[in-house]
Write a structure and sequence with these properties.
It is a single chain. By secondary structure, the protein is an alpha/beta fold. Helices cover about 55% and strands about 10% of the residues. The longest helix has 21 residues, at about 85-105. The mean pLDDT is about 90.
Length: about 625
């Protein structure tokens, strides 16, 4: 590799093209983290010049360039392997400074001098000058707005990119400019530098032409880069990883993307084509599915893209993948286990599984796959995702077998949740099941394997255990409300026969209501008498010293346990007023029937009383539905 230390003027003031490859990150610099420090550095160098101090160029950072052999351009063309954020920021800075000079001085020679840092001159034989005239070519997502900013005056940029925000609802003259800044990082950087330069000139007690002259010298002569020029025999990916692998802000998926497309480039595959066909959606902020939106799994909070890569690698490696080692595992997989003939084939498979991941993360149908996906989302269980991705993506598993596997998994997971079995080892459990399915692609063999499990970590609860737990387990305390609502909604759907209107139920905004309220002592008698609040509060401790098993405190504790079981829970579209929620059963029943159209709640119309016995009866009623919906 070659090493140079050019000043900004030496870097840009020549016939050259810096191309940021399609797979590089979009422009991500922010005002607080990077732009303000760059502006502070600029002002420090300006003050050194004004105070006639000895000038030492400011080290700006490194850029790594790979010289491209091209027959379509007369210009020296370089791919930017590293440093694209820095190069882009300086191009935007130069543009903002040019526009301040245009408004303040209107000196065409000065504007022309700055344009030499932004544009190449047309040479004889250039057939594609409009494409090649920009010294920097960003990625496709930044390209249009970058060229609009660099090619136009500030007034035209204002008209094209900023003023349209005034047409948006709720945006006025006080906020539209900030709205524009927030809409795009490149536009935000341009307005940041334009504003800072103007503010400084307004506040500086010095001659305008002197300020502009010193600014020009600082810009051209006081910022120095370390330029690393790679030769044909150098490995761009190795150098990229060395510079970014430790402590850099690149994400695991950024590193994977670069690794994929650098290999494609070295294989002389069509980068633009395979990027457009197979990766573009991952990077496109306007795509319907937001791959870079943050989501949670347990204590981890990462992008959908990162979680997808983890699931995909879990399938391929048949082992756990650490959240902070996704790139390492991906590279290891490609080097040691890959069976792809080309990067295109590699991306084809990634794209195939990504479409399944989208369906798993945002189900829209009511088939077996989507019903299971919805249930997993409501339960907050994601460790089974790799197994489902594998099943759906395996062409050797028939559609009939796939649907049965999803139904068995649905029953397995729902029954385990209702019975309160642990989910702590699900990652290991489902990797074992994944390994089984790679060898046995028949649903009935899979079912038999599940039935043979007997430990708390993997048992498929039978009907007797299921009934016992539904009648006695305080599920409201132990499980997420969303999981309980999901199960009750499924029972609601099952109770609707062909005569009922078909309704699509969405688990959103529904609330769980206790028939017997949690503060029942106010309006609900116990053995034909009311208890005091003091007895209600001390019962959990007093029961330990009460010898009579049918004594008052035993009855209070038993009722408190029963009120959190499934038999005492229902769902409402709107929560009851607290005063109604804690009222007597007669008042509460009428209010529930009045506001609810769910068949689940029509059950109470014929129930004149509500106590522990009625809760148990309804628990058995719900169990009979549950054992049929999630049968074994």
């Amino acid at each position: 590799m070659n090493l140079n230390k050019p000043l900004l003027e030496e870097l840009f003031n020549k016939q050259i093209r810096f191309i940021i490859p399609v797979f590089q990150r979009h422009y991500v610099w922010t005002e607080q983290e990077q732009l303000q420090p760059l502006w502070d550095d600029f002002l420090n160098k300006y003050r050194e010049r004004i105070n006639k101090q000895k000038i030492h160029p400011h080290y700006t950072g490194s850029i790594v360039l790979y010289h491209e052999n091209t027959t379509t351009s007369t210009l020296s063309t370089y791919s930017v392997i590293d440093g694209q954020q820095r190069l882009t920021s300086f191009q935007i800075f130069i543009t903002a400074f040019r526009e301040v000079c245009r408004k303040r001085l209107g000196d065409e020679s000065l504007i022309g001098e700055l344009n030499k840092l932004l544009f190449n001159e047309k040479s004889y034989g250039d057939e594609n000058y409009e494409i090649q005239k920009f010294k920097l070519e960003p990625t496709k997502f930044n390209k249009e707005i970058f060229q609009t900013i660099v090619s136009n005056s500030y007034d035209d940029v204002d008209r094209l990119l900023i003023q349209p925000f005034l047409q948006q609802s709720g945006v006025g003259y006080k906020t539209y400019r900030q709205k524009a800044k927030n809409s795009n990082r490149l536009l935000g950087a341009y307005l940041f530098f334009f504003d800072r330069i103007n503010e400084f000139i307004d506040e500086e007690d010095a001659d305008l032409e002197e300020i502009i002259k010193q600014f020009l010298w600082v810009l051209k002569r006081d910022f120095q880069f370390v330029e690393i020029g790679l030769l044909q025999q150098d490995d761009p990916q190795m150098i990229f990883e060395t510079m970014n692998g430790r402590g850099a802000k690149l994400t695991e998926t950024d590193l994977i993307r670069n690794y994929i497309f650098m290999r494609a480039n070295s294989n002389q595959e069509n980068l633009d084509k395979i990027y457009e066909d197979y990766w573009d959606e991952f990077d496109d902020p306007s795509s319907e599915f937001k791959w870079h939106a943050q989501t949670s799994r347990g204590r981890y909070y990462e992008s959908h893209l990162q979680f997808f890569m983890i699931d995909y690698l879990t399938i391929k490696l048949m082992s756990d993948v650490r959240y902070d080692q996704v790139f390492y595992h991906y590279k290891s997989f490609i080097i040691n286990n890959s069976y792809f003939d080309s990067v295109k084939d590699e991306l084809k498979e990634l794209n195939k599984y990504s479409q399944i991941y989208k369906r798993l993360s945002a189900p829209k149908s009511i088939n077996s796959f989507d019903k299971l996906a919805n249930r997993l989302i409501d339960m907050g269980i994601s460790t089974v995702n790799p197994l489902i991705l594998y099943v759906e993506g395996d062409d050797q598993i028939s559609i009939e077998n796939k649907n049965k596997i999803y139904q068995y998994l649905d029953s397995y997971l729902t029954r385990r949740l209702l019975c309160g079995y642990t989910i702590k080892n699900y990652n290991k459990v489902f990797i074992d099941y994944l390994k089984f399915l790679t060898q046995h692609k028949d649903a009935e063999e899979f079912k038999q394997m599940l039935l043979e499990k007997t430990s708390d970590t993997n048992v498929w609860p039978r009907d007797n255990i299921l009934q016992e737990k539904i009648l006695s387990r305080p599920i409201y305390i132990d499980e997420k409300s969303r999981s309980i609502v999901n199960i009750l909604l499924e029972i609601e759907i099952a109770t609707r026969g062909s005569k009922q209107e078909k309704v699509t139920f969405i688990n959103d905004g529904l609330t769980i209501e206790h028939l017997l309220p949690q503060n029942w002592f106010e309006n609900w008698p116990l053995d034909d008498g009311f208890i005091t609040e003091e007895d209600f509060n001390i019962a959990i401790h007093a029961v330990m010293t009460e010898s009579e098993e049918n004594g008052k405190y035993h009855k209070i504790v038993n009722r408190n346990r029963m009120l959190h079981t499934l038999g005492n829970l229902t769902i409402l579209t709107n929560a009851l007023n607290p005063s109604v929620s804690n009222s007597s059963y007669d008042i509460k029943k009428q209010e529930i029937i009045k506001q609810s159209t769910l068949l689940l709640n029509s059950y109470f119309m014929d129930r004149n009383t509500w106590d522990e016995n009625e809760i148990s009866i309804r628990g058995k009623y719900l169990y009979n539905h549950i054992k049929n919906i999630w049968s074994i």
